[in-house]
Amino acid sequence: MSNYKIKPLVLAMALAAPAFAQEAIQDNESQDGQVLEEIAVTGFRQSLEQALDTKRTSANNTDSIIAEDIGKMPDLNLAESLQRVPGVAITREGGEGRNITVRGLGPGFSRTTLNGMEVPASTGGLDTSGGVNRSRDFDFNVFASELFNRITIHKSPIASVEEGGLASTVELSTARPFDKPGQHFSFGGQMMVDSFAEEESPRFVGLYSNTFMDDKLGVLVSAAYSERAVRQEGFGTVRWTSPFDNGNRSWVGTDADVVIHGTPNPQANYPDTDIKADEKLDYMWAPRLPRMDSFNRDQERLGLTGSFQFRPSETMEFTLDVLNSNLKADVTSYNYFAQFRNSFNSITPLEVTLDESGRNIVAGTFAGVKPRSESRGQFSETDFTQVVLSGKFDLTDNIVLDVMYGNAVSKHTEDQLRFNIDAKDASTFSYSFLENGDIAEMSYGFDILNPDNYVFSGPTLRRDVVERTNDTFRADLTFNGDSSVLKTGLIWNSREIDSERWDPTKGSLADPVLTAALTTQLANEISSFGSGVDSPSGFPTNWLVNDFNATKEAYGVGQWTLNDNDSSTYNVVEETLGGYAEATVDTQLLGLPLTVNSGLRIVETTTDVDNLPEDSYTEILPSTNLVLELQEDLLLRVGLARNFARPGLGSLAATTVTPVRGTVSAANPEVEPMRADSADLSIEWYFDAESVLALTLFHKQIDSFLTSVTVNDQKLPAELAAIVAARPEYDPSSPLYDANVEDPYSSGWDITTTVNGEGATVDGYEISYQQPLSFLPGWGSNFGVLANFTHVKSNAEYGNGVRGPLEGLSENSYNFGVYYEVDRFGARVVVNDRDDYVTSGTGGEGNASFATTGPTRVDMSAFYDINDNIKVSLEAINLTNEVERLYTTGPLGDQDLVREYNSTGREVLLGLRVNF
To answer: How far is CA 249 from the centre of its chain?
Structure first.
């Protein structure tokens, strides 16, 4: 599924950046074209230079992002900053970066620490992005980027960095007063305009820092507040399938009753299946739920930090860091779809058009189809609080003791209200992809805006509460010699996830009759739907939706009772105790300077899953890193290590049931961690100031790789079937009843279990280039380029004998940016691109896998200093209005069938920042 490309428009914009900055250059030249003076390296260029210095002096393979100034990270989102790093790709939620993938390994393989301790961060999301995060994945969108002044990502292990980040360890650091002694005050604001939402969204940041008593006492406080309105719109199929793969169903009638354009070729989809001559259409693929999609997110985020430092003597320093982040998000989703899923055996094809391969129905007219309008509200709040107390003690001139205790709590609460209204009667429905392969034209055979044509069907009403708590204590002892550094330390962690599912209190719900007062039209909620994705003329842009407030009141929603028997209610506690010893020695090899870093970590992990017996295991993790200076500014770096990643805490306990899809994902508390041996080889040439050219080769051999085994069309075990049958969706007397759910006692269930597979390999290389282009006449060193390219290949075993690339892996990805910066003006244009990537290696509904089309994103920023204290900025995100496209690969994994096609538009921010 690799599709590496550089789009012409993107390339043209990047190449046009020099012209954009030329006028600013002329202001700094004399009449004969000579630069009047040497400009000091500040701002963005200074942050790049500091990051390079950190990389160059590190014992292992690292990359860093350093804020241009306190409270001024170079991007609006931490994940979007990280995507500039070689080997890092991100996934987005509502147009904003949420998770990272490093060198092909997904979010669960990277650890994230904040001020020295591993921290949890959970948010909620749309169904297409996985919903509520109960895993180890770190959601970077919890935090405002302005709260941080440094990000360091370790891509090769080192003994003094805690284990668990099989892909990487990301270290986040907030500002401290001793970082920049003296009094400092800054505040700023930005106003964001979204091209779809057409709403103005403010961002504010303020910071005060001061040191007292001859820099023995320091105080820093900061705050960042933002609002954001995002409109995401488009089309979806919610996967493709065939009647055969949807519970072995069949269309009504035979092929002889249908006008067929094209030649059915069912054996191309099912080469080993015996197919009757008059039932070939049962093996043709069609969209499950072709629909219009409108997702609307209103977000409010407040972040607060406080740092207090005390240095009573030259040999002693204490620091208290406090951070709180609160993220509130209201997501209203409106979808209108024709129900093919689970209804094939009541639908009669009248006329169909097949694609050239004879495998898929790309257009058709069908009788007996019931449309549904789904109005969903997800009202969530995530509250994160961390407190870290640390101390540094110079015991002697060359012995230093560092101690730290930290506590972090992330609590995510989300109410999901999904109201469904179905057409009273089945009708004739048509769809066609003939004009646009990503967005279907659709018609329904009746007035879809008339409330009299609908009735309520089973809603989904629930509250999810996920609270994650981490406690950490660590002590590190460092011995500094003339040419060596010895370190040893201990670390203890307690990680707990407490997940709760709350259902409406029994008896609190009514079963209302659908009336016009409970509905409205999409056009009354959203203007100009469909304009952002260039929809074809036959794509519906208005339909009947629920009025959330009125419908919520009619149902009586608002009282909740904890469901102790639901599989989403569980508690898992994980404790780890580890120690390490590490030595860094400066020596020589064949007369060349050589730095040797070698160490060993030993860690014991104990897991307690609800009432199951405790499980424990011990890992021994050696690592060696070598840095050989072949000549001045030319480094050869080698890294060898063993590391591991623990299973997600949620996967040990949670069994997920989706009755309407007929799927069960069963927990497996007996899965083992994933262990890996890794090797890195890189050569880095720091050939000029602020410059580097580097090539890194990397390899990982992952043992006991976690994978999913799915058995299709199964009967549920009796105990599980009884639990499913007791759900309110199966009770006709309940307002939550849904007639479209799968029979709990049928044989149409897909059961998925997480197991340890045979393993996986990851191989690839990274190329990095950064340089001020001082050799260009007239430009000086203020114009520069930063670029990187990553190629990764993998081979993983997904169960059921299926092998393929790792989920989330793009075979090729690149970043390309140009910047220009002088004393009072600066500008950047950055292009980020990645290949298509698999999001589920096992798929569902008969699909071999699900995947996402790799996006190309173009962002820019510019500033102008009015004077030494006041700066005006202009930033633009997603300049080319790149769409997000998800697709499914069909029964054999060789197709590209649209699953979701939507866009969030462009965002432009105008800001003002004041520093004193």
So the answer is: 36
Taking residues 337-357, report their average pLDDT.
95
Q: What is the pTM of this model?
A: 0.86
Tell me: the pLDDT tens digits for 656-676? 777 877 787 777 777 888 899
* Residue carrying the six token digits 């307002």: 735
Token pair recorded at residue 851: 């995947």
Running DSSP on this structure, what letter comes out for residue 614? P
C-alpha angle 755-761-763 in degrees, rounded to nearest 5: 150
CA distances from 277 to 3, 283, 352, 800 (A): 38, 11, 17, 30
Q: What are phi and psi of 632, to 5 degrees?
A: -55, 125
Which residue has better confidence, 449 or 568?
Answer: 449
Summary count for the chain: helices (H), strands (E): 7, 48
Cα–Cα distance for residue pair 571/614, rounded to 1 Å = 13
| Letter string b/e over residues 64-95, b meaning 16 or more CB atoms within 10 A of that residue's CB | bbbbbbbbbbbbbbbbbbbbbbbbbbbbbbbb
User: What span, in angstroms and rounded, lies between the C-alpha atoms of 29 and 841?
Assistant: 57
Q: How far is CA 93 from CA 77, 132, 335, in A?
A: 12, 12, 18
- Please give the biggest Cα pair distance in the chain: 92
Range of lowest pLDDT (67-81, 190-204, 463-477, 478-492): 67-81
Q: Indicate if the pLDDT at residue 2 is higher than 80.
A: no
CA dist list (Å): 815 to 37, 63, 491, 736, 886: 32, 14, 37, 48, 22
d(CA 819, CA 171): 26
Please give the C-alpha separations between residue 255 and each of 62, 272, 277, 279, 450, in angstroms, as whole numbers.
61, 21, 8, 6, 34
Nearest to 692 by CA among 637, 636, 633, 639: 633
pLDDT(4) > 70: no
What percent of the chain stands above pLDDT 70? 91
